[in-house]
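ok new one. same drill as before - structure tokens go in, u give me an amino acid for every spot. 158 of them this time. try not to just spam alanines like last time pls lmao
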């Protein structure tokens, strides 16, 4: 993961992804083996990845160039320092943590797969679009009426 904080350079480390939201403190292991802690108030964003890369979340490709194709809620987040980040939130509101938002970033790749943004880091959010169909909505459409020869207009008879 890469931790973006307000007052420092981004820090790389390992975090327990199943328990990182269990308290108001984030705890991670640095590459040199030290355990670090930071409060959610000091955290701007937490970027999860599978391959290390450049910490460019707020520098390059922070917004979508065009309408995304992934299903979800296309959201624009406005941070306290004036930076902007787009992302895709889940349709299922129960998957949203109470302390923040877990979203899919623009140009998601191995070096940035998911991003957690604490609510305290934001001044505003904007819903840009709803992408995809809610489950079951398409299946509940009314069945089409069968065409029969009786419904054909007589002007087409020869």
């Amino acid at each position: 993961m890469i931790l973006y904080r307000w007052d420092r350079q981004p820090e790389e480390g390992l975090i327990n992804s199943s328990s990182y939201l269990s308290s108001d403190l984030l705890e991670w292991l640095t590459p040199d083996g030290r355990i670090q802690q930071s409060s959610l108030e000091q955290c701007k964003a937490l970027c999860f990845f599978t391959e290390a890369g450049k910490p460019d979340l707020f520098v390059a490709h922070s917004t979508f160039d065009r309408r995304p194709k992934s299903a979800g809620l296309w959201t624009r987040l406005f941070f306290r320092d004036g930076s902007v980040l787009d992302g895709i939130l889940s349709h299922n509101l129960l998957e949203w943590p109470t302390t923040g938002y877990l979203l899919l970033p623009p140009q998601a790749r191995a070096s940035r797969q998911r991003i957690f943004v604490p609510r305290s880091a934001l001044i505003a959010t904007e819903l840009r679009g709803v992408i995809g169909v809610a489950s079951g909505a398409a299946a509940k459409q009314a069945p089409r009426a069968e065409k029969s020869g009786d419904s054909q207009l007589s002007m087409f008879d020869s």
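The mean pLDDT is 82. and btw The chain is about 0% helix and 35% strand.
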